[in-house]
Amino acid sequence: MLTITSASKLFNPGTVDEKVALMDVGLHLDRGDFVTVIGSNGAGKSTLMNLISGVMKPDLGSVSIGGTDITVRTEAQRSRWIGRVFQDPMAGTAPNMTIEENLAMAYNRGRKRGLSWAVTGRRRAVFREQLGKLGIGLENRLTAKVGLLSGGERQALSLLMATFTEPDILLLDEHTAALDPARAELITRLTETLVREMNLTTLMVTHNMEQAIRLGNRLIMMDKGRIILDIPAGRKDGLTVQRLLGEFEQISGQKLADDRLVLG
Ligand SMILES: Nc1ncnc2c1ncn2[C@@H]1O[C@H](COP(=O)(O)OP(=O)(O)OP(=O)(O)O)[C@@H](O)[C@H]1O
């Protein structure tokens, strides 16, 4: 479903600020794979997500979805295939628009320009049904401005909007990190349900190692722009944070110096 081939990305090349964000990264996800991504600060996780979503292009290498090379396509052109939820609950939704207007926008994502964002009676029924799945009462607040929702409610809506059109790839960029533990757990459960029901091919960046172990069928660890560990479904069972830290030390020859990652 998703194939990244030999992707490299360098920032500020040839200057004192040169940073290797990705170095010769190869990754293939089959349809329905749910891959969690961990790694220390600056490991290249966000850059990887940005290359897939089209926010930036690799200096070398390629990205393809479903066999189509999308390396040079813009972010807007890719939006029909890709749904993304960011860490910041404010990022995925338009605060001055109502819940139903936001959903109409998500519904039209990647479709022909000029289509109306009008909320028809039929669409409203679909929106109500979809929102009902979240189980937090948003289906009764269709005309509420999104700016009035709590962070957790907004993130639940962002998640629904990102998955609404059953994208080929779902990118979750530390999407529970800014929430309190109870809301984070709610969003995690919703994520699991939506991914499972739609069999979505998913890449989820998280700083929470427990979460990375518990969720999904595969785990990758990044360090200094490379994928240094790729743990497939069978080997994930029985994995512990301690063992993961041990593997990191063994491969990189150093202790993991990122408290946020170690402590979760
Ligand atoms: N726009 C940019 N300009 C210059 N350097 C950048 C830019 N974006 C990222 N970098 C650098 O590239 C490297 C990888 O950054 P990236 O944000 O992908 O890491 P990350 O794994 O997401 O880190 P974190 O967990 O801290 O968010 C880092 O050294 C970072 O400083």
UniProtKB/TrEMBL annotation:
SMART domains: AAA (SM00382)
Keywords, in A-Z order: ATP-binding, Cell membrane, Membrane, Nucleotide-binding, Transport
Highest taxon listed in the record's lineage: Bacteria
Domain (ABC transporter) ranges: 2-249
Places the protein is found: Cell membrane
Protein's membrane topology: Peripheral membrane protein
InterPro entries for this protein: AAA+_ATPase (IPR003593), ABC_transporter-like_ATP-bd (IPR003439), ABC_transporter-like_CS (IPR017871), ABC_transporter_ATP-bind (IPR050166), P-loop_NTPase (IPR027417)
Any single GO CC term annotated in Swiss-Prot or TrEMBL for this entry: plasma membrane
Name of the protein this chain belongs to: ATP-binding cassette domain-containing protein
Any GO molecular function: ATP binding
